[in-house]
C-alpha cells in the first residue's frame, strides 16, 4: 500500500521554496509560491511550509493557517496539494493528519483545493475518503487554459475567430500596447482600471495595499509584469501577469469603459502571452476565471462577460474539483461549519473591509 509522511520544511527548503514547489508533480501553482505566502502573512494567515514524502516523490505544500479563537486552527492548502494522481490526495491529507496529531497541533480541519480536473470519479473518490465538498474560493476553479507551446503563427490560428480577428485588427490599426515599469504611479493606475471591471463591485476589490504587496513581491521575484494599452497617451487597459515555472497566469486586469480602440484588451493579452512564452518559456497560460463550463452561456452569471472574452482565446473551459474539507476534530469542525465560519467572516469584514479568505 502506498503511504506518505509529512513534516515541516527545513530552513533551507523554505529559503528555496519556489524551486521545490516547481519540482512538484504538477509543476507547482502560483498560489503555492513564496511570494504569495508572504502576502497572506500580512492579512491574517500564517504560512506553514510542509514537505510530504511518498514512495515515488516529495510534494512541497503551502498551508495557510487561520487561527480561530476557541476552536484552534484551519489549514487551507490553497491550490494544493500538488500530486501525481487524484488517489494521492487522501494519502497526503492522511499524512498531514498524523503529523497534526503527533505534534498535538490544534488544527480542526484541512481545506484542500488541488488542480485536479473535476469528474464524477474524482468526486466519488474524495467523498469516499471522507472529504466534504464546500464552496469554491478561487476564481480559477473554472478557467480558460491556453496551450502556448505552438509557435506564434500557429498559436494565433488556434484562437477562436473572434479572438484572432480582434488581435489582428488591433495590430493593423496600430493599437499602443506596451509592457510598463512597476512604478507606484503605474500600480495606482492599474488599481483604478481594475475598479471598472463589469463583474466586480468595489466591495469585492481588495485594498490597494494588498495588491501593491502582491505585485511588488512577484515583480521582485522576477515573475510578475504589467502591460497597458494606451489611447491618446492615457492607459485604458491594464493587466498584471505572472510566469511561475512553465505556467503563465493572467492574475489581474481592468479597463476603462467606452474605449474607441477595438481589440486593445485582446492585444494586451496577446503581447503578454508571447513575451512570457519567448522570455520565460511558459507552455500554458491561465486566464484565471470563467463561469463553470455548464454555465458559460448563462448571461445571469456574474462572470459571463469575462468568460466571453477569455474563451475567445481558449475555446474550452476547464473545471477543477474546487474546495473540499477534511475533518480533523469533528466537534470543533461542527461548530465551525454551523456558525463559526460565518461569524469569523463577518467579524473580519467589519474590521478590515476585506475578504476573509
UniProtKB/TrEMBL annotation:
<keyword id="KW-0961">Cell wall biogenesis/degradation</keyword>
<keyword id="KW-0133">Cell shape</keyword>
<dbReference type="InterPro" id="IPR050644">
    <property type="entry name" value="PG_Glycine_Bridge_Synth"/>
</dbReference>
<dbReference type="GO" id="GO:0016755">
    <property type="term" value="F:aminoacyltransferase activity"/>
</dbReference>
<dbReference type="InterPro" id="IPR016181">
    <property type="entry name" value="Acyl_CoA_acyltransferase"/>
</dbReference>
<keyword id="KW-0808">Transferase</keyword>
<comment type="similarity">
    <text>Belongs to the FemABX family.</text>
</comment>
<dbReference type="InterPro" id="IPR003447">
    <property type="entry name" value="FEMABX"/>
</dbReference>
<dbReference type="Pfam" id="PF13480">
    <property type="entry name" value="Acetyltransf_6"/>
</dbReference>
<dbReference type="GO" id="GO:0009252">
    <property type="term" value="P:peptidoglycan biosynthetic process"/>
</dbReference>
<dbReference type="GO" id="GO:0071555">
    <property type="term" value="P:cell wall organization"/>
</dbReference>
<protein>
    <submittedName>
        <fullName>Peptidoglycan bridge formation glycyltransferase FemA/FemB family protein</fullName>
    </submittedName>
</protein>
<dbReference type="InterPro" id="IPR038740">
    <property type="entry name" value="BioF2-like_GNAT_dom"/>
</dbReference>
<feature type="domain" description="BioF2-like acetyltransferase">
    <location>
        <begin position="162"/>
        <end position="289"/>
    </location>
</feature>
<keyword id="KW-0573">Peptidoglycan synthesis</keyword>
<keyword id="KW-0012">Acyltransferase</keyword>
<dbReference type="GO" id="GO:0008360">
    <property type="term" value="P:regulation of cell shape"/>
</dbReference>
